[in-house]
């Protein structure tokens, strides 16, 4: 769970929601997993003195960072220093073991423990919300104008930048979740979950992106096929960007769709790369990078589709939403809101 901590030591359980200061940072799940370990070791560190501790975790990055004692990510490295400090003070040894998510029964059951459906709990939560009022922080939507600005500062002859540009356009026009486009780390690429070169089918002026897994397709019960249309008159043509990327970085069909050249080999573009480059290019076009994230593309794509008068049911299908949750992604301008008031005014007798 991204917003809660669940741990137990010697039948002692600990559960708490992350404070708003952490939630508002929109940290990656890898960072939240490591932060959970830090919090729990600080809570129970004195009880672990002289012991050998095994942490079973379904996050491969967390396991790797703990066992290797290093990470290139600044936040994960900071967490690692805290872990080493607590372990040294309390004289215990620590090792992490990866456990597949499907086998992590306890965490899985807790994540599905939906008490909020109980009437009494609903009343309690409503009262808490009234007493502890706050405005949820959402990443702003990427707009077409912003993409055009980014296009002007992109070097389309640079293999890395042309790959990032293609990733930006795919994320926007597919309204795709980042988990379907890039892995969390170079080692965690999953051919069944992330987009590969042979899952982008080109046929004339149409490309079909094929997904066998997504947040709403957990059991392989259906195949998601999302089309992209060539637009030769626009700089924001996803097919042109894809062809250019494949020309500069050719790869086998079962390779990740988005690759970086690195020391005479190709490596998958990761979530960290995705996040870093979006903030870099947002800065280059004079915007505040803290207001945008990789999620901004999915939100921006849904908003643009709505502005383009695409029917709601088709937006749901295209973005693979299981419900009307897509409405939370829509971002309306003041002029659009004014148009509603004007339309209503016309019918006032």
UniProtKB/TrEMBL annotation:
UniProt keyword terms in alphabetical order: DNA recombination
GO molecular function: DNA binding
Superkingdom, taxonomy of origin: Eukaryota
InterPro entries the record matches: DNA_brk_join_enz, Integrase-like_cat_sf, Phage_Integrase-like_Recomb
Magnesium in keyword set: no
GO biological process terms on file: DNA integration; DNA recombination
CDD domains according to UniProt: RNase_HI_RT_DIRS1
PANTHER family referenced in this protein's UniProt entry, alphabetically: INTEGRASE_RECOMBINASE XERD HOMOLOG, PHAGE_INTEGRASE DOMAIN-CONTAINING PROTEIN
Protein's UniProt name: Tyr recombinase domain-containing protein
